[in-house]
Amino acid sequence: SSDLAMVRYYMQTGTHKGLYHSLQKTLKFFQTFAMLELAHCAIGIVHTSVLVTAVQVSSRIFMVWFITNSIRQIQNEESVLLFLVVWTITEITRYSFYTFNLLNHLPYFIKWARYNLFIILYPVGDRKST
Question: I need a surface site. Which of 28, 37, 105, 129 has the fewest CB within 10 A?
Fold first, then answer.
């Protein structure tokens, strides 16, 4: 997965420069594939607002395809590393929540993280992307 690839890349190179280039195909695929989440919300597989999901998915697609992919000068910036790390933490938390919830065994920490980490992650990601 891309989170392991990020760690491996950094450990091999000692820098974030070039990380986007090495992950761009995987990143584009999975962020575009996330449009399926809209269908999951619409048919009730996931109990989340279609509108909220649409905003989140479209903003990520915009960041990947229309900003980072189009503007080569920013591909080695720390802001790219930051949004990759923030998205990774968000997805690990979210899918852990869904998995444990399906198993009817939701640890308190996972529930807490699912509903509270955004307080830290959104402003950090937003501030660094400006």
Answer: 105
